[in-house]
Protein: Syndetin C-terminal domain-containing protein
Amino acid sequence: MAPWLKTSLVNWYVTLSVLIPYKLLPYVAVLLTTLHTVGSVPDLTEHLHRTTARILLHVNGYVDRIANSKWEVKELGVEHNGYVDLMLGEFKHYKTRLAHGGIPQDVQNLLLEYGVEIFAETLVEGLSRIKRCTDEGRALMSLDIQVLINGLQHFVPTNVKPKLQIVDTFIKAYYLPETEYVHWARGHPEYTKGQVVGLVTLVATMKGWKRKTRLEVVEKIESAAA
Structure:
């Protein structure tokens, strides 16, 4: 497929997709079904499916909700953060939108998986923006993710845990010694430079790193990512 045609189709589709909840969902359902069966344009098909998921799954504001949750807790209880329930509620609505859109079940399942991936991206970005937390706060992050995994599993037919592994790995990086972060960053290109720098900045604050040490680690990470 010519690049200009692919770009035109994508732009046209995105324009239509803005109105999906109202008038055009049946037409988009036909498009999704058709593309799903056309093997000659798999890259375009995947792009359009992922675009559909991003439009129908409303995650605006969740990065800030996650970042601004209370992470400086002194004791780990049994209660998870409120943003978890809100995200599960949104995913339930997302599944309902797909079910009522005339989209084939196999395409719905694919879009549900992409939705989980979007949640994982949102969680990592939110966690990377946390300014202060305690060790108990770090444990609370893991509790939140486990509750989210258990909840999402009710909506998605496939195992959701592997798709949220990227979040678990990010949380566990809080426990690394300061000498390991540059090497860890190089081994995990799935995280953006900003996310890794946010992680290092938080750990440096929590652990009381010397300012010089923090600056040196951040500089090495930024240089490696350049």
Summary: The two ends are 32 Å apart (CA to CA). The chain is about 70% helix and 0% strand. Residues 115 and 219 are 34 Å apart (CA to CA).
